[in-house]
Amino acid sequence: MAMVSVVIPVYNGAVTLRRCLNSVLAQNGDPMEVIVVDDGSTDGTTDVAASYGSRIIVLVQENQGQAAARNAGLSAATGQYVAFLDADDYWLPGFLRTTTGFLDAHPEASAVSVGQLIKVWGKPPRIRPRVLASRGEAVQPCVLDDFFAFWARHDHIRTGSAMMRREVIERAGYQRPDLRLCEDLEYWGYLATFGAWGFIPEVLFVSDGSAAAASTGWLRKYVARGRVCPTVEQWQERIVPRLQDRDWQGFRRVRGRIAATFAHAKILAGDDLAALRIVRRYGSEFARRLNTRLMLYGAAGRPAEWKIACRMLRLRERAKSVLIWLSCVLGRRDGQWF
């Protein structure tokens, strides 16, 4: 039996899948199985996965979304530990050994996450949590005293940055396939109510989806997801009944990030009224950024001002989408993306 199962859901990810798989197969540590779940791809994803032969397990299903793909991988997994990794992300050397070593040393921890390097088009690379890039607050590997407070303050989890115990997953249940947006964040919050989480202050995970965004059409993807975006109430329904009193302050800040994401998605999909309802109900929990300031300004004014705010947000994202596409296409040489 494998010690670690790595589940990689992929939909039209031929551009980045090889980079992702190479980063996993280069890891040193406990024995592992790598499960790629092709969620109905129509590009060359299947050929890329097949080129690895017996080193990976390939499952193919009709397009059902990332949560359904991860659940299919979980059903086939045999490892004591489980990690998810999206096809446009990758691990740095030492991720596997460091995370499993932490869980071996801390049996009270249900899961552990690591620091991240986030690459977003048009911005310099960012280290998350930000505390890792500063010389201020010192952070040591630890089991967190208050998961939701730490999450609210540091936004420290991405899908590929976590390693989980399989037995906790089986107790909690799998991801919700009905959530087509922020389903991974719902799962982290839900799993955190089943036991303590650890944090390792070392950057071992990289998120870099620019090539995938250009290849699949970033704006088109998010418009489609906005059309099936759940309500905030649906997103939180598994988490809220399990929260302790001390969890609420941090959870509200996290929920504010989710609500802002949903409102933005609804605006991109053209459902301005649904977005307005979200802003009016959860706007007090929003972090203050350019997008959220525009939404809050528009929601506080007359209907015409809300329409203007929504149009500005859509124009901004359309311009960004075009620039991402152009920058990636112009940077493509010999099949490589930069």
Task: Report what the structure shows.
It contains 14 helices and 10 strands. The chain is an alpha/beta fold and 338 residues long. It folds into 2 domains: 4-216, Spore Coat Polysaccharide Biosynthesis Protein SpsA, Chain A; 219-330, no CATH class. Strands 1, 2, 3, 4, 5, 6, 7, 8, 9 and 10 form a 10-stranded mixed sheet that branches. The longest helix is centred in the last third of the chain and has 28 residues, at 303-330. 44% of the residues are buried. The model is unreliable at 332-338 (pLDDT under 50).
Give a quick precis of the structure.
This protein has 338 residues and is an alpha/beta fold.
Summing up helix and strand content along with how strands pair, one would put the structural category as alpha/beta
Order of helices and strands: EHEHEHEEHEEEHEHHEHHHHHHH
Q: What percentage of residues falls in helices of 4 or more residues?
A: 40-55%
| The CATH class of the largest domain | Alpha Beta
Rg result: 20 Å
The CATH superfamily label of the largest domain reads Spore Coat Polysaccharide Biosynthesis Protein SpsA, Chain A
Tally of individual helices = 14
- Seen as an oligomer or otherwise, the chain set is single chain
Q: Characterize the largest beta sheet: strand count, sense, and whether it forms a barrel.
A: 10 strands, mixed
Strand runs, count: 10
How far is it from the N-terminal to the C-terminal residue, by CA?
Answer: 38 Å
Overall pLDDT score: 90
So, CATH architecture of the largest domain?
Alpha-Beta Complex
Total separate domains: 2
